[in-house]
Request: fold
Amino acid sequence: MDIESCMLGRRSIRAYRHGDVPDAVIRFGLELANAAPSAGNLQAREFIVVTEESVKKALSEAALGQEGPIAAPVCVVFCANLERIESYGRRGSDLYVLQDVAASIENFLLYIHSQGFGAVWIGAFNESGVSRALRLPHYIRPLAIVPVGIPGEVPSPPSKRPLDEMVHRETWSD
Reply:
């Protein structure tokens, strides 16, 4: 699959068919996630792979009852490592680490799609609930829950704002 088809064809998959995702697919996806840009190459990101039903249930509860964590055979929780970004001060913890993790998530999502699997980026969740479920230390902040599985649905492409509404040249323009 070429990169354009992969990027344009990826969808947020929220329903999954029965079947496993090979460990090798998850592992290589995480290698590609870690290949994403990183402020100062600090790689202030952590990945927690979850397959245990009780932990996936706790993730679903923390995600305001979303079914994806339970329905998918595997979830990856993408986290910020606030200790690793300390040298960049507040801007590092408020912005750079978020950019690092977001870039890694997109790499992961694209690879998963390219391999015929589906995933969804869940950002709506109770952070303390996820932290408790995963027994995270205080310096690790969960930023996304990404269920991965065999797509049970492929939604239609969502409508997008016209590019001309978003692109500004040189300075802001209305």
Observations:
- The chain has one domain: 3-153.
